[in-house]
Predict the 3D structure of the following.
Amino acid sequence: MEQKQYELAAQVLREVQKVILGKREIVEKVLMAVLAQGHVLLDDVPGVGKTTLAMAFARALGLETRRVQFTPDTMPSDILGFSVYDKQAGAFSYQPGAVMTNLLLADEINRTSTKTQAALLEAMEERRVTVDGKTHPLPQPFFVLATQNPVGSAGTQLLPPAQLDRFLLCLSMGYPDRESQVELMKERHHADPLAQVRPVTDAAALGGLMDAAAMTFVADSVYDYTARLLEATRCHESLQLGLSPRAGLALCRAAKARAFLHARDYVLPEDVAEAAPDVCAHRLVLAPRARLHDETARSVLAEILERVPQPAVREFKS
């Protein structure tokens, strides 16, 4: 059964790579987040394929998806839904918002108000929404793939730390290499690239993949290594705010999913180290002195990963 699940995950990667050329590592990381039941923030300049990546995943995974273009006048009710009075029933009825789906594509999330951004907090953390005192569960599975333009672009604003903390991964796609750029220009004039992507799974099968990834074995020494990384961020002179226990749980989930994508039923220390920059960097807050010296969260994290020794054992089995 496990071998079939590994192959199914590989099929999803192949389908998405039909339209996302030369970005295998990014595609793999997004699937890693999906298997870890986490949300993804794609932070990059316009035009590099962030929205196409999200839509390709929605098609390959066979999930219901909705897209919201965030603007300054987007209201929380557009996301969560609202109550209207039903004369015949003599009561208020809930009208679902865009969040009632499996995969929510939140396009340019940092162009809307803080109030609207905050409307997603409960949905992203607890997979439910509360409207007028009544709680409504979200469909399962539920993921948010959000895109944002770099802070400083016209009309953008910083996402609050509480919002950033809900994203398992923060990724940057970057520009394609020359060969991929040539292929893009040759192919994209004649057909919709997303038409090439076929669904290879559905919500039920994806649930099985997520369960299998969650069962990946983690040795005590790997848990200890993860805890030492967290502690190192909390006492680092360049960091004003280190990693929380929630970040530690997120890092473990991501490491399990990475091991699963590499067809292993156990986590290696390098799974933790490789996942750490994308899981942790957006959760760190630099100290003022670090900003003065042009340090970044990723450079500080790289120094920590270099300094904290990995366990010597190379293979862990349950």
In short: The mean pLDDT is 86. DSSP finds 14 helices and eleven strands in the chain.
